[in-house]
Design goal:
alpha+beta, two-stranded antiparallel sheet, 2 helices, 29% helix, elongated
Amino acid sequence: MLELNREIGTSFVLVTHDRALARTMDRAMELVGGVLRPLATV
């Protein structure tokens, strides 16, 4: 999926509870208290 994403220049949304997987993406966000923010690098 990531290869296809880069080849054709599209976006996709991956929803996961796995923070390690989220960090492998080009951009990762988290929802905290109803607010969407960049994923902390802790």
